[in-house]
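$ ./design --mode recover --in tokens.txt
reading tokens...
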């Protein structure tokens, strides 16, 4: 079995696979392996990006990094039989793409997608509501959470990008105040955060 994605959802997949008797479990991550210690630019109380071994990882399996999925390969019955992957290359614009000439196949009877949020459905939103997006693929919005479409608001991962649920909760409350004010002219609801607010950083 192959798991695409190395976060908490991926760990759940690994643990469940072992409990169901998977012959082998391989986790593929598109990026590099995180460092084992906290980086200087991520001091406490920031949540550092470090290499973690979950209890599910301790049960077994293999983790591979810099692995970009190229193609799902099927058998004559339409069932997956392997995954074609390549080494990940980092481009000048920050994007990550498969490196030509490094493709290989990894046999698999089952592939589970445990990938992070990659953005709202742009075609649907732009087509139905003329909603615009920023350069990172997030819904573009002003400081009152309104999108480029009049009367349409965006909160959480759709506007901020993949983040913690506490940000989504705080944004939901703040946007409720903005919607109330938009509809009623004023509001007494709290607005705990703005769309431009970010987690603590050394740059302030």
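writing sequence...
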């Amino acid at each position: 079995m192959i798991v695409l994605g190395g976060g908490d959802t991926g760990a759940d997949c690994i643990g469940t696979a072992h409990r169901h008797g998977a012959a082998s479990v391989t986790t593929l991550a598109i990026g590099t392996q995180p460092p084992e210690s906290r980086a200087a630019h991520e001091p406490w109380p920031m949540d550092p990006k470090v290499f973690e071994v979950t209890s599910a990882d301790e049960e077994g399996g293999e983790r591979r990094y810099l692995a970009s999925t190229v193609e799902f390969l099927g058998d004559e019955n339409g069932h997956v039989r392997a995954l074609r992957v390549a080494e990940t290359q980092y481009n000048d614009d920050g994007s990550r793409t498969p490196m030509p000439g490094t493709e290989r196949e990894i046999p698999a009877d089952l592939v589970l997608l445990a990938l992070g949020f990659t953005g709202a459905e742009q075609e649907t939103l732009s087509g139905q509501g003329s909603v615009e997006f920023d350069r990172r693929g997030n819904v573009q919005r002003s400081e009152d959470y309104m999108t480029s479409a009049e009367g349409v608001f965006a909160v959480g991962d759709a506007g901020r990008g993949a983040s913690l649920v506490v940000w989504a909760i705080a944004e939901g409350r703040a946007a409720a105040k903005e919607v109330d004010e938009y509809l009623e002219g004023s509001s007494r609801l709290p607005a705990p955060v703005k769309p431009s607010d970010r987690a603590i950083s050394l740059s302030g």
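exit 0
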